Amino acid sequence: RRRRPPPAQSPLDKVAAQQGLSLPQLSGRWFLVSVASRCSHLAEHSHQLEATTVMVTVLDGESLAISTLRKLDGMCWEIRQRYLPAQAPGRFLLKGHGHGSKVDMVVGEMDPSSFAILYYQQGRSVSVKLYGRTGRVSDAVMDKFEQHVRAVGLSVDVTYYFPTYGFCDSADEFHVLD
């Protein structure tokens, strides 16, 4: 009998989660500063990026409710997601409907007063996002982000920067992703 090969290691398995992460420190408003991703939609529409904010709320002491506010075609939309705790502290799972729709998320590094670097994986595709407590972060934080990006095989060629103006304060429409 032939043996089955072991399951392929997920790229996020090699990513260390923030040590000593206190979930309440993730709570509050964050501004999306930058994203590194090989997403073809992002590459094709990078000239249309809109200022994006997220509000993080800790539910039941272990899950994260994430509300994203962003413009789409001139309207402010709210996208609501709930990330469930995964196998280890600092790791979360967004369950979707259908094959390949789940999203794994890892809190890679953060300073609760200034920045958070989060990793996302859907299927084999990995992206890294940099959030700030304000729309801008220091050069030192940007350097850290770029180190995290390179560590998962991405580069500055697939790194996109978001506007620091034009944020939505409330939603004209909302969408819930379970």
From TrEMBL:
PROSITE patterns for this protein: LIPOCALIN
Localization: Secreted
Gene3D superfamilies registered for this protein in UniProt: 2.40.128.20
InterPro entries, per the entry: A1-microglobln (IPR002968), C8G (IPR043245), Calycin (IPR012674), Lipocalin_CS (IPR022272), Lipocln_cytosolic_FA-bd_dom (IPR000566)
GO cellular component terms, A-Z: blood microparticle; extracellular exosome; membrane attack complex
Single GO term (MF): complement binding
Annotated Lipocalin/cytosolic fatty-acid binding domain residues: 27-161
Domain of life: Eukaryota
Keyword Transcription regulation on entry: no
GO BP annotations listed: complement activation
Keyword Disulfide bond: yes
Keyword line: Disulfide bond, Secreted, Signal
Pfam name, any one: Lipocalin
Similarity comment text for this entry: Belongs to the calycin superfamily. Lipocalin family.
Family matches, as PANTHER family: COMPLEMENT COMPONENT C8 GAMMA CHAIN
Protein name: CO8G protein
Species of origin: Neopipo cinnamomea
Gene symbol of the encoding locus: C8g
